[in-house]
Design goal:
The two termini are 32 Å apart. The chain has three domains: 64 residues, no CATH class; 73 residues; 180 residues, no CATH class. The longest helix has 36 residues. Strand 3, helix 4 and strand 4 form a beta-alpha-beta unit. It has 354 residues and is of the alpha/beta class. Strands 2-1-3-4 form a four-stranded parallel beta sheet.
Length: 354
């Protein structure tokens, strides 16, 4: 089953790996607790992390070692597949596969004529997979293109209501399980900030949350205090960042006080990052459908954070918004667990977007 997941291109299938492993180890943990078996809980937890790590490595290796071969009808958005390096594409000049074996055929269903439509029908009857270029590009890039969106697409992006109802419970379970270690880390961080120099330990700022409602967000202060600092993008090499601040930003410890916001119900563990009101007003004018990202609660970490890191200008912000839209469209507990895994991997290995 695991190898079959790698046959369909894109990152969404990787999100299936973590929940499968988690379900197995949760079941084992319940058996240990119910029957009071003499098994070390720490050993069980550690073995689960190791299994998850190696499954992820194997998944990535299989995807990159075996390039998927796709036949592309070079019309409309299907032409964009040429810019993606980890798949092998071949342009079809005529409605004929020429006896070459492909893993699938890709077409922009809105751009092809009747001849190509009949060709796709023959492919399906022969058992050859047919992919919609729009959906495939989203899966491969982890983004929903803003420039290609229309008002008719908004409804299809709405997350499941059942998912939204259970999301707060999911957040509270994770918060309760991790709160002891988080409190210890917060205490050490607060001490380091205090020893480095004067200024507040916590930094609070108004951000825009779900439904465009403002709330107060909390972070550990990572920059030198200055009355002259205006609202601006904070770059990773910003001269205002302190020595302690550089470390806690790299490890994302500066975000931990937002557990307060999660407990209050203002934020979630996973979701689009909340922005300052002035930025929201500016981006709403410049980026199509920008405010739609406020359909979900903002998160401490999210798909955009693990895929594209910090945004320091308008172009990078637009890319992050496209990642946010992908998350909103595909929001699920499987994807949430995968994002948590990628966040932890980035923090401890330094590999991945920050």
């Amino acid at each position: 089953m695991f190898r079959l997941l790698t046959r369909y291109p894109g990152g969404r299938n990787a999100a299936l790996v973590a929940p499968q492993v988690l379900a197995i180890y949760l079941t084992l943990s319940l058996i240990v607790l119910l029957f009071r078996l003499d098994v070390s809980r720490y050993l069980l937890f550690a073995s689960g992390l190791v299994a998850l790590f190696w499954l992820h490595i194997e998944f990535m290796a299989l995807q990159h070692l075996k390039k998927i071969k796709l036949a592309v009808i070079n019309m409309g958005r299907a032409a964009e597949l040429a810019n993606i390096g980890f798949i092998n594409t071949r342009i079809l000049k005529a409605p004929d596969l020429e006896e070459i074996r492909y893993d699938g055929v890709v077409a922009d269903f809105d751009a092809i004529d009747g001849t190509w439509e009949r060709f796709l029908t023959r492919c399906v009857l022969k058992g050859i997979a047919v992919y919609n270029a729009k959906h495939l590009l989203e899966s491969l890039t982890g983004r929903v293109s803003i420039r290609k969106m229309s008002e008719n697409d908004i409804g299809s992006l709405l997350p499941s209501r059942n998912y939204e109802r259970l999301k707060f419970l999911f957040d509270m379970i994770i918060v309760v399980l991790t709160l002891p270690i988080v409190l210890i880390i917060c205490a050490i961080t607060a001490l380091c900030i205090r020893l480095e120099g004067p200024g507040p330990i916590l930094y609070s700022q108004t951000r825009i949350g779900r439904g465009n409602r403002p709330f107060t967000l909390y972070k550990f202060r990572s920059m030198a205090c200055s009355k002259d600092d205006a609202e601006a993008f904070a770059r990773q090499d910003d001269s205002r960042i302190t020595r302690v601040g550089r470390v806690i930003r790299m490890l994302r410890i500066d975000e931990l006080p937002q557990y307060i916001n999660v407990i209050r119900g203002e934020m979630s563990l996973i979701g689009p990052r909340p922005e300052q009101p002035s930025f929201v007003e500016e981006f709403d004018e410049l980026i199509p459908f920008y405010s739609y990202r406020h359909v979900l609660k903002p998160g401490i970490t999210g798909w955009a954070q693990v895929r594209s890191g910090y945004a320091s200008d308008l172009d990078e912000t637009q890319i992050k918004i496209e990642h946010d839209f992908y998350y909103i469209k595909n929001a699920s507990f499987a994807l949430d667990i995968y994002i948590i895994f990628l966040t932890v991997k980035t923090v401890f290995t330094g590999y991945g977007a920050r």
